[in-house]
């Protein structure tokens, strides 16, 4: 099957470089208006002085900011509800996210839900489509999700144990500030999980069944090799600017629509990981580190050409003499060794404190939102086996 037709359009303005956070007031005033909701995570931006720097810079440019703190990893719909209510009550004109993908996804959902008087969860259930989305800006503090340059948002609902994705063409950030120095103080596990997230976004778009995608393949291979090289460097020396800059740029390029233009994957593993997060509370990067190797072991034989290319061009692992049946275990071992020994993270549910994963519940939930045809042809028994193997 040949490369698919596509239209590529990405309106996000990316402001990349050392010290670019100082531009936040000018950019916010120009693109979001002068009354914004400032969305932040738990406390790190306060402890390291980033939130004070930003609020002072906003005030200097005449921007008034209401603050919403406490957005958690796997952001909850409750934060969206609180933020949307504040936007409506205060008559705010835009939403500024300061954080990683969780904070940015929450900000996007707030910007859309501000137009809706009902429950914002209806956006994710696809019951409503907002007529508009308030303008969004970002100050990125974690290289991982690529949310700084796309229109996607993923939100969890603890009450229903669901984690659902949503997209709107107006949810691309009007601007995103990408200052690699803001990632110097990240805990090691966040850097590692971020690297896994970046790699996983590329995996999803690389393991397709199309032909004539040499350009997309070349970009994908370069991104994967860069993450594999730079993530251990960033872990070894937290202030390695070049390594941090490479990871941040890779994060953006992995999910801004470019490498998937004409070569869209089925995103099966992200659907499976959402169940690990929703049912067992795993961090997104941890869940991907668990699920992707298991998936590789199960599907490599049916995607033989792609996996040989993956092993040889990405990992420098020869597949000469390797049989079709041996490809899956070889890919599994290669990726697991990197995650466990170079990134120092777990690759099984037991390593994250889960002894009895709710396999049947997770399979049923996945098949509620996807058909087998939209899961790479995996049937119920195969999905069950992948979930069982992550122990």
Give a brief description.
This protein is α/β, with parallel strands linked by helices.
DSSP helix count? 15
Instruction: Give the averaged pLDDT, no decimals.
Output: 96
Strand order of the largest sheet: 1-8-5-4-2-3
Q: Assess the beta-strand content as a share of residues.
A: 5-15%
Gyration radius, in Å: 20 Å
Structural class label: alpha/beta
Q: Classify the fold: give the CATH topology of the largest domain.
A: Dehydroquinate synthase-like, alpha domain
Shape: globular
Number of domains: 2
By CATH, the architecture of the largest domain is named Up-down Bundle
Question: What is the name of the CATH class of the largest domain?
Answer: Mainly Alpha
Helicity, as a percent range: 40-55%
Spans with pLDDT under 50 lasting ≥5 residues?
A: none
Number of strands: 8
Order of helices and strands: EHEHHEHEHHEEEEHHHHHHHHH
Q: Report the major sheet.
A: 6 strands, parallel
Q: Please identify which CATH superfamily of the largest domain we are dealing with.
A: Dehydroquinate synthase-like - alpha domain
Terminal Cα span: 36 Å
Can you offer a commentary on this structure?
- This protein has two domains: 13-182, Rossmann fold, CATH 3.40.50.1970; 188-389, Dehydroquinate synthase-like - alpha domain (Dehydroquinate synthase-like, alpha domain, Up-down Bundle).
- The protein has helices at 24-31, 44-47, 50-60, 77-90, 101-113, 121-124, 188-206, 214-236, 241-254, 268-280, 284-299, 304-314, 324-342, 359-369, 380-389; strands spanning 13-16, 35-40, 64-68, 94-99, 136-140, 152-157, 162-167, 175-178.
- Helix 8 (214-236) packs antiparallel against helix 9, helix 10 (268-280) packs across helix 11 (284-299) and helix 14 crosses helix 15.
- The strands form two sheets. The protein has a six-stranded parallel β-sheet, with helices on both faces.
- The longest helix has 23 residues, at 214-236.
- By secondary structure, it is an alpha/beta fold.
- The protein is built from 15 helices and eight strands.
